Amino acid sequence: MKHLLKLEDWSTEEIIDCLNLADQLKYEQKHGIEHKVLKGKTLGMIFEKSSTRTRVSFEVGMTQLGGYPLFLSSNDLQIGRGEPVQDTARVLSRFIDGIMIRTFEQKEVEALAEYGSIPIINGLTDYCHPCQVLADLMTIREFKGKLEGLKMCFIGDGNNMMNSLIVGALSTGMSISVACPEGYDPPQHILEFAEKYGDGKFELCRNPLDAAKGADVVYTDVWASMGQEEEKKIREAVFKDFQVNAELMSKTNPECMVLHCLPAHRGEEITEEVMEAHANEIFEEAENRLHAQKAVLVKCMADEENMR
Ligand code: CP
Ligand code: NVA
Fold first, then answer.
1. pLDDT digit string (tens) for 189-228?
2. Which atom of ligand 1 is nearest to the CA of 262?
3. Rounded to an integer, what is the distance from CA 112 to the centroid of its chain?
4. Disulfide engineering: 158 pairs with which of 72, 186, 204, 225, CB 3.0-4.6 Å?
5. How far apart are CA 35 and CA 65, in angstroms?
6. Both 122 and 12 in a single domain?
7. Domain match, 136 and 278 both
8. Residue nearest to atom 4 of ligand 1 (CA)
């Protein structure tokens, strides 16, 4: 059984295969070619945090594939009143065919996979956001025609996005430099993952302008993630110089793309000017959540005869 718990669980071949399928599904959707490969299947979508893109793209994607998306807010589930995830996993496995979960702790996602008997897809935890990064890689390939040899740069917090981007970029032959303030680095095992790829592939900088040098793709994300609302003021002070702005863009390669997982806070991690200059890429990236996730759904949930 195939899960998507975190991107480092998937090999380079599995990632590229998923991106190829995403491209194909995008083409087919644009040309009115339907594939109801998940007909009769139900995806439970558990949300313990807010969402616009992830919820809508999974819901629409599941419908386009002929399946049924079941939105499950943790406010209404017994999970929100303390029912253990181990029991929820075993119960839901008897009703539905797959679970997409957005939650706080990565261990909750891992527990669903351990105790359940259906595919589990991570729709964001504090640790990672693999579905987003698959859509990001798809978008980079769409605009640049390749991944291998490109340089990505991430400006901001060592958060779920930075973690998955480091894994996604290095797994597909890109190099990545990240700039974050001291005390906001990615976790140790992500740094160890990066170390395996050797010199020149990964760089941790304190100065955003150093990280941006020669970049082909600049990426940023909010300074305070969901669940960190109380730290917002402190973070505004800590991150004030970690902004994607015109000065930073002047250090990159001339045809540099800008990506943002969204939602964006203009005037904080990105200026209005840079955001609007790169809106074309950023909103294609948002659209690609749909196509990349449909590929993930097929890879994880389709029966053998419908596997593509
Ligand atoms: N980028 C992303 O995951 O957006 P949502 O929080 O709206 O799902
Ligand atoms: N780092 C952000 C990503 C939102 C898609 C958060 O976790 O809130």
1. 999 999 999 778 999 999 999 999 999 999 999 999 999 9
2. 1
3. 19
4. 186
5. 6
6. yes
7. yes
8. 53
The atom of ligand 2 lying closest to the CA of 160 is: 1
Residue 115 belongs to a domain: yes
Q: In the predicted model, is pLDDT for residue 305 greater than 90?
A: no
Q: Are residues 139 and 272 in the same domain?
A: yes
Range of the domain at 79: 7-129+289-306
2: in domain: no
Provide residues with CB under 6 Å of ligand 1: 51-54, 124, 132, 261-262
pTM of the model: 0.98
Q: What is the pLDDT of residues 217-272, one digit of tens each?
A: 999 999 999 999 999 999 999 999 999 999 999 999 999 999 999 999 999 999 99
| Same domain, yes or no: 100 and 161 | no
Which ligand has the shortest distance to the CA of 126?
2
Which residues are within 8 A (CB) of 202 and not within 5 positions of it... i.e. 6 or more apart? Answer: 166, 170, 175, 176, 177, 178, 194, 195
- Residue identifier of the C-alpha nearest atom 6 of ligand 2: 225
Same-domain check for residues 155 and 62: no
- Residue 257's CATH number: 3.40.50.1370
The answer to whether 256 is a known catalytic residue is no
For residue 1, tell me if it sits in a domain.
no
How many residues can be counted in the chain? Answer: 308
Query: What DSSP line would sit under 183-232, residue for residue?
Result: T-PPPHHHHHHHHTT-TTTEEEESSHHHHHTT-SEEEE--SS-TT-GGGH
pLDDT in tens, 266-304: 999 999 999 999 999 999 999 999 999 999 999 999 998
